[in-house]
Amino acid sequence: VSQLWDDDMQRYRDDMHFLHVDHWPEGVRRQRESDRINPRLCLQIDQLSQFQRQVINDSRQNRPQIKVRPVDNKADVETAAMFDGLFRHWQEAGNADTAYDVALDCATGGGFGYFRILHDYIHDETFEQDFFFGQVQNPLTVFLGEHKELDGSDAKECWIIEDINKKDFEKQYPKKNPISFDTDVTMDADNESEFVRVACLYEIREEQRLMHMLADGSVCSDEVYQGAVANGAEAVEIKSSREIPQKLLYYSKFTAEDYLEEPRKEPGDRIPVFPVWGNMHNIDGKVIRESMIHK
To answer: For residue 200, which of 65, 160, 187, 290 is within the disulfide window of CB 3.0 to 4.6 Å?
Structure first.
């Protein structure tokens, strides 16, 4: 999967370095400054970040929102309004604004960014869980699998690289060896010995599911049908049946040696990592992702 992103990630590094660190290539800067006879200045005049900030600030003033609309005879305006309020609360409580801003900053400056949707317990004294938005500070740690849809909804896998402090690693996984996962993602050399690099994997698996259309017009899975009959419900005649592929989401985490978290089933049927793109071009069948400052 990482090979799909090599060119885009190199453009991301170049653009971010040009935008925030140094306008001059290292070789040119060294040549100009080391000339003993006629040393030349390397001026840096920032004329780009103002345009990036304009896009980000426009987004802050016009936040993307989830909108629910009733579309069939089983829906109504009151229910849609209730879901609208629920989703607004979910975005506010889940810190969606910050996740959006970080992703957009990366997309405008480097070409792409991401945010995640995660779930966790609401607080320490409950077993109820809720969803919240997760930031991706460094999109170079995310490797989204091959996909055609712009939102990445058809991707079958997504790898996320994470660096864990060794002391925290030993507390969380006392029986596991702290062997770092080998990747091309740059790590701070000064702190490399203090962290363990692990990989998280989201993957979509497909299982065949038998569906029935009953004589009364209702549709249900074979599992639901057999369970209802076993509980004493009247066996309604099956008019038609067919098998469909059911998408199941699994999550796992591991080091270079062993699983830290065995693959487990997660809620949903798509990978909960959402890309935010800068500029995209399809040239000779190859998708090229660029920042708004790239030329």
So the answer is: 160
